[in-house]
Amino acid sequence: MAKIAIITVAAAVSVGLHLVNDLYAPEPEVLYHTAHASAPEFDWHSLEPSTEIKWTSCYNDQKCARLLLPLDYLSEDLSGPTTAIALRMIPARDRTNYRGTVLINPGGPGGSGTDLLARAGKNISTIVGDSFDVLGFDPRGVGASIPTLNCFSSKGQRDIWLTQEGHQFLNTSDEALLGLYRARQRVVGDRCAESDGGEEGIARFMSTASVATDMLKITEKLGQEKLHYWGFSYGTILGQYFTAMYPDKVGRVIIDGVYDAYNYRGALWNSNLLDNEAVINSLFTYCHEAGPLKCALYESSPGKIRERYYRVLDRVERDPIPVPHAEPPLLITRKALVNQIFRAAYKPINTYGTVVDTIRAIETANQTALTALAPKIVDPTECACRTELPQIVENDAFSAIACGDGEERTYDPEAYKAYYADLTSDAPNAGPFWAVHFLQCTEWSVRPKWRYTGPLAAANTSHPILILQPKFDPVCPLRDALAVRERYGGAGLLVQNSYGHCSMSAPSVCTAKHVRAYMEDGRLPEEGTVCEPDELPFVGQVSDARAMSGEDATLSEALRGLSEVVPMFGA
Ligand SMILES: *[C@@H]1O[C@H](CO)[C@@H](O)[C@H](O)[C@H]1NC(C)=O
Ligand SMILES: *[C@@H]1O[C@H](CO)[C@@H](O)[C@H](O)[C@H]1NC(C)=O
Ligand SMILES: *[C@@H]1O[C@H](CO)[C@@H](O)[C@H](O)[C@H]1NC(C)=O
Ligand SMILES: *[C@@H]1O[C@H](CO)[C@@H](O)[C@H](O)[C@H]1NC(C)=O
């Protein structure tokens, strides 16, 4: 059996299904009024929430609004409590051929759409075409939407909590360690139940059914009949729910990097990691293919590179390496290196070089190099694109959404051990990180008021959905995409012959053109379409950039930008 991972990134410990990197931010006290070195931060707090979308200019040429929607869609009382949903939009530049607004979701669950828009909105706009507005929204409980779910009182407090976990893997053969991991999840579960799990507490109203309904309401308020949407990672769960709940409201719906919503709703978390090892092993294959000039770990076969990599891990397990001059100082343990490659597998093209540099620096005991590499040992996906939006703080939305959507699970030691064994046999590296999701849910007690329990399928939709799927995704395997495809009548499938999470992890102008054709004309790729990536890890560019037309070159640049923000589902 295999498992899928959903990645969230925090210090070196948490796991989830996100597109976007760490969501660090200043203390909550200064959330809404921080000035930044470059652009002044928009003051979301000054934006009057309203029951219609009232756009205000923000971030130079963009539009922001806060839309009031019912907190509780099951309530008879329409004047009851509300939630203010933060919207941030890049308007279409081509008004003549205007085609509507595309909503985007970066996954998580718990990722911020306004943050994704800030990082990659222009790139997404280039790909879908100038005739669409691109709109990021913060799902209820998240980011600049109000209220937010945050069960820690400051970022400092959360950071201390996260670093307390230490350097040992979750390991079910070690009862004490298992007890520790479980007790930690109980602490978070109990804190959230206490702070936000009451009658009108936000934790009870964050289910995917509510968010899908928010997307419908946003679409209606925009004056548009049907939803246009591109969702990544957990965003594919949101897309599956929406399409199942509102099949006649599908305009253009793309789900990219698919997790099977039945597995998700069962709170099983055991399909994600099926292809995880294949993605990790591609490091050795591409290093060999690229040759000694492009890969410093080159050996005469991929197997020998693999042995060399694991030899370093074994050594570090016996003798952890202190890096005292890093800021903050770092201890390189086996767990730190496995965490590095687990994260790197989300976007191999951008990160495998760092993994090789790390191993080389350890082999040569080069402290100068290790000191410089330290932040990328902790998180190789950390990128220069980080914008540090002050309203984006790490939150507890993952548990509220994923555990609340899922069936209620109680902890059973034997069942958990079997599950863990299954997960780690598929994915010895990622399994111990991924297995935490299950504990997150057994120790989470808040139940949502509204949980969608109908079929996650639709024989007929007002327009067929489009599935984009890398052939080898570390946390959302092709097998899930194929299963989901069968459930949605007429759905199109484009497989991208690449490694990494979601199509954007490997730029492919071929894929981008299919996205454009679907968005603009509703055209699906022909049955069996496979797109090749334009770039490979270590090897580099494989398509001839000089031969590209101007339009292809523009797409290629947009794809490169987008590849920086690959969602970190379950990390
Ligand atoms: C895409 O993203 C990159 C990096 O963020 C940026 O430099 C580039 O200008 C963007 N351009 C377009 C047209 O998408
Ligand atoms: C798990 O714990 C057992 C018992 O302490 C130990 O023998 C084993 O090596 C550990 N496994 C891992 C992957 O650390
Ligand atoms: C150690 O790493 C630094 C930085 O990467 C490099 O400049 C230097 O040449 C390396 N030293 C040795 C002895 O390899
Ligand atoms: C599917 O839905 C479309 C659009 O609503 C409609 O035209 C078509 O007849 C439906 N097909 C079936 C088999 O129900």
TrEMBL record:
Gene3D superfamilies, per the entry: alpha/beta hydrolase
AB hydrolase-1 domain mapped to chain residues: 101-258
Q: Which residues form a coiled coil?
A: none
Record GO terms (molecular function): hydrolase activity
Give the Peptidase S33 tripeptidyl aminopeptidase-like C-terminal domain ranges: 428-531
A Pfam family it matches: Abhydrolase_1
> Superkingdom of the source?
Eukaryota
Please name the InterPro entries in this protein's record. Answer: AB_hydrolase_1, AB_hydrolase_fold, Pept_S33_TAP-like_C, Serine_prot/Carboxylest_S33
Task: Give the signal sequence positions.
Answer: 1-16
Query: Sorted alphabetically, which keywords does the UniProt record give?
Result: Hydrolase, Signal
The family classification in the record reads: Belongs to the peptidase S33 family.
What's the protein name? Alpha/beta-hydrolase
State the species of origin. Dichomitus squalens
